Each structure stands twice: as structure tokens, then as C-alpha cells.
## 1
Amino acid sequence: MSEQFDASRPIYAQLVERLKAKILAGTYPPGGHLDSVRDLAAAAGVNPNTMQRALAQLEAEGLVRTERTNGRFVTEDTELIEQLRAEAARNMAAEFLEKMRSIGYTPQQTTELLERWNETEGEQHE
Amino acid sequence: MLKQLLKYEFKATKRLYFGLYLALALLSVVLGVTFRQEHALAHSTSFQNLQVILMIVYVSVILAIAVLCFVNTVQRFCRNLLGREGYLMHTLPVTETQLILSKLLTSMVWVLCSGLVGVVCITVMVSIGVLDAEVLGTLSWDRWKQLWQMLYEELGPEFWVAMVWTILINLARLASLILCVYAACMIAHQFKKQTMVAGILAFIGMNIVENQIDKLLGTNDAALFVDVTYKLVDVSNGSEGAPVMHYIAAAFGQGASCLFCFVFTVAIAAVYFCLTRWLMKHKLNLE
Amino acid sequence: MSKVLTCEHLSKTYGKEKTALDNIDLSLDFGRIVGLLGPNGSGKTTLIKLANGLLQPSAGVLKIAGMTPGPETKEIVSYLPDADWLPDWMRVEELVNMFRDFYGTPSEAKAYIGFDAAKANEMLARLNIDPKARLKTLSKGNKEKVQLVLAMSRAAKLYLLDEPIGGVDPAARDYILNTIISNYSKDATVVISTHLIEDIEPVLDEAVFLKDGKIFAHRAVDDIRETEGMSVDAYFREVFKC
């Protein structure tokens, strides 16, 4: 039921990341209605105040908006979502390249690996 | 809330009492039947032995009821309020007064019920043993009425007034006795070691004090008939000195002295009640 | 009135030699889920019993919503003791009725007082507990579940749960924590005393660390994680290292 959390970082920060990922991936579609804080907290097995804090953070970033009577909705600003998604992708790619570099792969070698990926690993997975 | 407390208090205690009452009632009937001499068996030794055994069982059940009345009074207070179950009882939204009253009233009702059941059962036993159709035929409602009239005329209204006072005073004494037990329990609760000894000593101590005051005032003399606490029953003559009671009786009559005795007993009960309540409110420590 | 629980210079000694709580100052806000953490014998149970009026302070003051423990506070405090405390000859359904009789059903006007029997029955059904069973015939785990269901079905401003997850299986533990979360209200605070921190850590707002009868720390859980760079559980292990 409850999610596992990285022990060394604040839970609310991890919730922000997870919620954001769900919005970027479209699990929570643009303009979609979000469950109540309590339900979201219960589903994640976390404190409602912590969940509240995470949602407030998303609201500050413009990904979520609150309607006084109807609850919370994912933003309809697809441009913002796209932009954040591109940003997130860039960050992850940078992180990945950094890791590859740490074991001696140049960006070029890494690209070659990725290009071959679909042919070799992809088949294995199917 | 007191009503709810009483409801659950009776619920918790009734099974034991009803079990014993039922046993006593059945035994009364059986014993009553054996008393009838018309059986051919009646004179055989084995039958007589059986009768003796039944008598012993009968007396044991009566004793068991008496013991239960006492033990249950102590236990319902100590266990239910000062033991594990106290976690529940003391977190209910009720006052200490309600808790103590619920225990007191329940105990009093059971003591009175037990007395009544005892009397009824013995009457039933004797009736079954002695009365047969012939005797029953001679009894009529008119005869009963005659008997009552005779009693009333013979004894006069003073008798009945005294009777009412006796009942009232003894009810107050019963309440005072039970509250004394509760106060002793609360005092014992203050001791970590030798709780039992402390409780018994507290009970004896409080009784000595109460008796000394009794003696000083002469309140014992007012109890006319049966006295539940087995104090001296002495209507005719005061002991040494001139206790307050005698002045009252001399100045205002017997009724006033009974009233004084009643008020005094109620006051003693109130002192025990307040002591119990204060200790429960300010000195409760469930460890 | 702005605090649900306050302690000022609160001390409790048992006899002359044993000090269970030593000059504690503590205040808890409404709408929090608080972990009362500490090893055995650190004073957790003593503090909870003081708040319930089952123990009397040796010194200092303890107040519930501004009131000294008494019938008024007992209405707004729901208590789950760490030991068997219910009359075990009673049937589960009788216990439910008894709680309803004493605490009343929560009303619109006073939603923070009462006992929700329907909710209790629903939870009991969910946990597969036979309402007709007598308490003494239940297993230890089921007995604890019944006690917890009764405590959590109360409408209250302060829930004091002493070791609520000690004896139950992991599935029931999840259900219990979930109940605590879905029961959450801005007007009520839940205090959970335990030494099994890992399980309840994500559920907590703040943690109160008790050490030898003193308050060692009272901090927000995410604050501990942020500044110490470790979970509350790991922090606890470090603080109470033997």
C-alpha cells in the first residue's frame, strides 16, 4: 500500500518529485481532477500535512491549481508541462551522461550505445 | 451517565448472583419436597443422609451468596476502578461521584436482593414441606387480613414508625459500611507495598473511630430491631455517662432520636464518600 | 486554547527513587500527527497516562485544550492503552454499544465528541472480526485490533495511542496507519507512542524524543531528515545508541 521513501531526504521533497513525474508522464492528465489531500496521503501512506506541503509546492510551480469549492486540478497549460518535461529530460540526460563519463564513456560512445539499444536490448526485452 | 454506569454495572454482576439465586431456589424446592413425610422412603437412612447433604449444600449456597455480596463489593471497586479496567472506567466522560454512586447503589441492591431471595427461598421451602392441600384450604384472604389487623392493633402505630426508622437507619448503615470499604480501598491504593494490609488496617481504624463517636453520642441505642452492622441493640437503657442521644430522646421524643441517628449515619456515610471521592480525584495513580 | 496539549515543568516520580518524567515542557498543536519516541522506560506511557488523568503529576501542570484532565477532557480524548483494558467477558458488539452509550453519537454541532458505531462496525468487518465473539476468545492480535478500532472510532480532539502497532501483523499495521491518515482532521491531533519508528515515520508530522524522562528533541520529521541527512529512525538509533 504505502510507498517506500529514501531515508536521507525529506519526504515532502520526494512526494513533489513523484507527483511531478505523474503529471509530466500524463498519468494525471492536464486539467484532470486530483484526489483530496487525505486520499492522496492515504494512498501514499504519508502524513496529510506533508502531502499538503508537496501540493503547495506544485501549486507554487504552477503545475496544480486550486478551485475553492471543487478541489485541485492539474494545470491545463500544456506548454508549461512540455517545457518542464523537456527540462526534466535534459536534467536526467545530463545526470546520465555524467555517470557514463565517470566510468570512462565519452558522450559519443554513449550515443552509440543508445543507438544500438533498440536493436539489441530492445529485442531481448521482447 | 449514572444510568449508563448502573446498566453496565448490573450487566457485569448479574450472572453470578442470578446463578446462585437459581441454585438456592431449586434447592429450596427439592428440600421442601424431602421434608414431606408421606414418602415410603422417608424413614430410610440413605434418604436421611441425602437430606443432611442437601441441607449442607443449602447452607453453603446461602453462605456463598453472603460471601459473594462482600467479595463482589470489594472487587467491583478495586478491580474495576483501581485495576486494569480502571483504564476504561477513568477515561469515560463521567465524574468520580457517578463512578462511586454506581458501585454503591449496585452493591446495595444486590445485598438487599440477596436478603430478600434468602427469606423468600426459606419461606418457599418451609411452605412446601409443611403445607399440603388440607392446610392450604384453611388459609384464606380474610384470615390474612385478620392477622394483619391483629398485629396492627396489638403493636400500635409506634411499632410501624419504629419499623420504618429501623429500615431507613439500616439502609444508611449499609451504605456507610460499603463506603467505608471503598474509602479503605482508596487508602490502600496509596500504598505500593502491602496494599492488602493497609486496606484492612484502614478499614478497622475507621470503624474504631466511628464506634467511638457512636458511643459518645449513643446513636447505637436507636436501632430497634435487626441491625446489619451488628452493633449493640439496646433500647431500654443507656450505658455509662449521658450520651447526646438520651437528651434528645428525653427532650423531643423517640422520633427525634431516630431522626438524629439517621442523620448521623448519613453524615458518616457522607464523610466516607467525600474521602473516597477526594482520593480518587486527586490521588489516583494507575501504574 | 490554541494548543491541544501543554505541559509545564511536568514531573512524575514513583515513590522516592524512580523519576519517570523530569521537568518537561511540551506543547502540541491541533491537527498534527505526533510520534512520541523513546526506548522502554523513557516515560512515554507515563506522559500519556498523565494526560488521561490516570496518574497525577508530582509537580507541574498538564492541560488538554486548556483544561486540567477531568470529565470534560475525557470527552475529547481518545485513549488506547498499551495493555488489555476492556472487560474481556463482553462480546465485541456489546463493547461497541457500550462505547456508543457512554460517548454518544457525534452530532452535527459537536462533531468532535462521540463514538461512531457504524464506523467501528465497518472497520471490524474489514478486519474480519466476529462481532458476536467474546473478547477473551480472540487472539492477542485481534484483541488489539478491537481495542484500536474502538479508540479510532471515537470522535475526539486528541488521540493518545500507546504502542498501537506493537502486536499486529504487517497487513493490519498498514490498515491501522491508513485509518489514522484517513481519519485526519485539522481539529484533532494524534499522538502515537512507539519504538517501531520506521513503520510510522512517513505518517508523522513531528517527533518528540523522550530520553530518561526528559525531552531530548521536539522537531518536524522533515526537518530532521533535512538537517541530519538521515531518517528519523536512523537518527533515533544514533541518539539512543547503547
## 2
Amino acid sequence: MTAPLDREWARLSRTWRGLEAREAGEADYGALMTWVRQWRARHRRRLLWITAAEVGITLLMAGAVLWVLLRWREPVSIAFAAAAVVHAMIVWAFTLWNRRGLWRPLGETTRDYLSTALLWSRRQMQAAGFTAVLVSVEMVVVLLWAGLASPAARPVTPWSGFGWVGPAAITVVALGWALWYRNRARVRLTALERLRRSLELE
Amino acid sequence: MDGGWEEGGHRGTVGQPEIEAHFDRIIRGHGDALRRLARAYARDTADADDLFQEICLGLWRALPTFRGECSERTFTFRIGHNRGLTYRARRRPEPDEIDESVADQAPGPETVLGASIRHDGLLAAVRRLPESQRQVVLLSLEGLGNSEIGEVLGVTENGVAIRLTRARKALRELLGPDWGTG
């Protein structure tokens, strides 16, 4: 830059840096620290609840499978328990695979940050698609089992008494969630791609 | 974005008192600059306050990962800009990026700005810039050199220089006669 341009830019820079002093006066950073500490406490509680919920659901499912096995020691119950275990393994395998390489600290460059954000959105869409396919396939399997097998060959489960309302409700809720989640991820992906284009980082 | 992948967490061996002291030092040193950055990204003052808090939170969460591979200022601005982009990705795009409350006061390029609204005029002009130009202008106005701006954004020094030239030209057109009279 030439000297006059440098001087002009320096004047603009001074104007810019005077902005906050004029607007906010002396900032209350003590209050900010208090807010951050409160947020940290809330965040810890939230993580604790999420972990407790994950462990709780896993234990509940394991308990239900175990109960079916102990209560009805028949081949069909063993098949049901095996199906539940396979289901859990598929879900966990996909979850772990889908999360690979996603963690990045906030202190990365804008280019790296946006790349990870885009990857995250794509993975969210994959997760939604996987959920939709999985529940659809499982519903078809359950319906075939129910329709083709004799009553004796149908699995007895803790929720058998509710008929097909339970599985149907789970399928509808899961498909609805997958649709909503995919749409949200798609909107975010579009916004991020627009940002990347406008930042000329491609 | 929505937590998850940007959850830095508090890893490493850095203790809580050290993190608090480091955070306090950064906020006191760069807090005003981060406030200005938030105002340039946000739609209005209320949004800017929220964004500033988010930036501070991001800084807090990322601090334990700071290993001194770049300067503290570079690290701080990276987090500020990344949070700003997250904010932008969350909200709906608008044809005119200007804060209406500022736009009411901010004259167009053809108008001479009065001294009392010079700050708002500059803010409005910066908000009008395309994303890629706004980023380099914000960092340059805060006193960062091209090399440091490149470290924040992840682009080459030459790339920064090209963007900055275009940005200054655009800013000059937006500010009109007020260019350089701050």
C-alpha cells in the first residue's frame, strides 16, 4: 500500500477500534465470568443426564432381552434376543463409523473449521438416512414374521400384549425424526456451502 | 454446530484455575475486539450480545486445546470468526445484510457522514461487504498483518493481500467521502 492509503486505513482502523469504547463503555467482564461459570455447571449437569440416559436405555434393553430369554426358553425367543443383539451391534458400528474424524477444536483455521462443519452436516444426513432404512427394514421383517409365521413361532416379548401398536408407533416416530433431522442437516449444509463459496475457500 | 463436533471439552493437564486466569487475560486483552467482531457478524445489537457470549464460551471451551502453535491473538480471532460463521449458517440469508437500526441512520455512499454517526456508518459499510472481504477487513482493522490474517483464515498471505485490495476498494465505494476521515 502507498503511504496515503496507509494513513487513510490507519484512520479508519482508529475509528473502528473506538466503536466499542463508545458503545459499551467499561465492559462488565466480572458478570461474563459468572455467566461462563454458570454455563459450565449447567453443561456438566446436562452431560451427566445424557450419560445416565444412555446407560439407562442400554440397561433397560439388555434387561428386556434377558427377561425374554429367561421367561420363555424357546428357539423363537432366542432368535428374538439374537436379533436384538444384532440390531444393537449394527447401530453402534454405524454410529462409530459415522463419527470418525469429526472432532476438531474451535481454534482451527476458518478453512478447516468449515470443512469439518460440512462433513458434520453430511454425516448427520447419513445418520438420518441410515435410521430410516434400518427401521423400514426392521418393520418389514417384523411384519413378515407376524404374517407368515404360525402363532407359536411368533416371538413373545414384554410388549406382545400391545399388538402391533408399539412397533408401528416406533417406526412412525423414527421415520418422522429421520425426516426432520435430514431436512435440518440439509438446510445447514446448504448454508455452509454458500458460506464457503462466499469465502472463496473452495 | 449444535454442540457435538465443536465441543472442545476440558482435556489435557491444564487446571481450572489456570484456564480461568488465561480466559480472564484474553477477555481483558481482546474482549473489545471480539465485541466489535460480534457486531459486524450479527444482525442487531441483541444478536451481537448473544454472539459475543457464544464466542466467549467457545474460547473457554477451546482454551485447554491451546498449545501455543499460533499466537494468542490468532487463536482468539479464529474462534471469534468461526463462531461468527456458525451464527451466519444458523440464520436465514437476507438480500441486504445491514442492521435495519443502523441502516436508518447510515447514509448511502453518496451521503457525507456526520461525525456522530461515523462509527455506525463504518459498521454498516463493513456489514455490507461480501463474507470473504468482511473477514479480512475486520482483521485488518483490528491491526493484524496479512500473514496473521492468513493464519486465522487458512489462506495464503498473497490470497489475503488480493482480498484486502478488493475489500478496501469496496469499502471506499460504500463509505464515499467518509473514507479515511475517521
